[in-house]
Design goal:
This protein is an all-alpha fold and 103 residues long. The protein has a single domain, classed as Alpha Horseshoe (Serine Threonine Protein Phosphatase 5, Tetratricopeptide repeat). Helices cover 80% and strands 0% of the residues.
Length: 103
């Protein structure tokens, strides 16, 4: 059983587990299944806007898909959420990604 199959199996038991969904999205990125990864990241953030780790990865994915405006929006929203939960590390990481993209 490969990693994707394992994560999907775990998700059957806990379908709303953000950590497992995030891990599955990262696995999809590894095999260039960008659309599945994008859908998972969006689902995570819709259900739990303060799951700040997903903003960075979704933003990078959108950059790779040449969806620059979407990436900018995701980074900005992620920065707002990181500030709300007082996660300065994630805030700085998102800010750096935004600056790299817009400069």
């Amino acid at each position: 059983m490969n990693r994707i199959d394992q994560l999907q199996e775990f998700l059957k038991a806990t379908p709303n587990d953000n950590f497992l969904q995030h891990a599955l999205a990262l696995e999809y990125i590894k095999i260039d299944n960008d659309q599945e990864a994008k859908m998972l990241f969006e689902k995570i953030l819709q259900n739990e806007p303060t799951y700040v780790g997903s903003y960075y990865h979704l933003g990078k994915l959108l950059e790779r898909l040449d969806e620059v405006a979407g990436a900018i929006s995701i980074y900005e929203t992620g920065m707002q959420q990181a500030k709300l939960v007082k996660d300065s590390h994630s805030y700085n990481e998102l800010q750096g990604a935004l600056e790299d993209l817009t400069e």
